[in-house]
TrEMBL record:
Domain of life: Bacteria
Species for this entry: Terrabacter aeriphilus
Full protein name: ATP synthase subunit delta
Keyword NADP: no
Function according to Swiss-Prot or TrEMBL: This protein is part of the stalk that links CF(0) to CF(1). It either transmits conformational changes from CF(0) to CF(1) or is implicated in proton conduction.
Length: 270
């Protein structure tokens, strides 16, 4: 996001912050914002009208009122007015920002229920499962299959096995990927969650599952090095044999046995 869109996103965030701090029904706020994103994505004329840089912000705020007053909650309308009234570099920046606010509302709901970490873990694990299973990935993204069929598959796989916020976001990713692959959509949601929670995320690969104590100790150690809070996502891969591989930001710390063996083989062959 560049130019005026960056300033627009910063200016419109106050409306979201106010809605969340004011006791909004966060689930409803998310649902309504996702619905508006879908409406804008489906209407070129409306999307252009909202993002038209030649129109005054007050005109676009009035447009939000005409379209949505009485049809969405007051908090949702306040967020829409805050977003519509800004000057955006592109239509996509505007709709992406609305989608970001919808995801943040879901994460805020999870935070209020004390299960935000669980939601992140479940989204990450399901994304990895789908990425490693071509058949499942195809079934979830098959444009020839009805939306109801794909959503029914999600329900059968996850149902009451995951937090409602995680289920809702997976359903949204299947229902409206917005031109992205399913896995990229989930990764985007996870990035939004990390930014909202002001934390970094580390992906840790190990030969055996880490205990809660292992995860806590590793998170604390990484936080000391990188600052802030670090959330740990784990991947179990027996091929690493032992040790752990840590990916955080653009950095890779590979302390696995297999890497050490590879290094030894290279040294012996040198």
């Amino acid at each position: 996001m560049q130019g005026s869109s960056r300033a627009a996103a910063a200016a419109s965030r106050d409306a979201l912050t106010g809605a969340l701090a004011g006791g909004a029904d966060r689930s409803r706020l998310a649902e309504e914002l996702f619905a508006v994103v879908g409406l804008l994505d489906g209407s070129t004329a409306l999307r252009r009208a909202v993002a038209d840089t030649s129109r005054e912000g007050s005109d676009k705020v009035a447009l939000a009122d005409r379209l949505f007053a009485g049809k969405v909650g007051d908090e949702t309308l306040a967020v829409l007015r805050g977003v519509f009234g800004q000057r955006w570099t592109s239509e996509r920046d505007l709709t992406d920002t609305l989608e970001t606010y919808a995801v943040e509302s879901v994460i805020a709901q999870a935070e209020g229920e004390g299960r935000a970490d669980r939601v992140e873990d479940e989204l990450f694990r399901f994304e990895r499962i789908v990425a490693s299973d071509a058949g499942l990935r195809s079934a979830l993204t098959d444009a020839q299959a009805s939306g109801e069929r794909r959503l029914a598959l999600v329900e059968s796989l996850l149902g009451d096995k995951v937090a409602p916020e995680a289920l809702g976001l997976v359903r949204q990713a299947v229902r409206a990927p917005r031109g992205l692959r399913f896995d990229r959509t989930i990764v985007r949601y996870l990035d939004i969650a990390s930014r909202r929670r002001e934390q970094q995320t580390a992906t840790v690969t190990s030969a055996v599952p880490l205990t809660d104590e292992d995860r806590a100790r590793l998170a604390a150690g990484l936080a000391t090095v990188y600052g802030g809070t670090v959330h740990i996502n784990t991947v179990v891969d027996p091929r690493v044999m032992g040790g752990v591989k840590v990916e955080i930001g653009d950095e890779l710390i590979d302390g696995t046995v297999i890497r050490k063996l590879d290094a030894a083989r290279r040294a012996m062959g040198a």
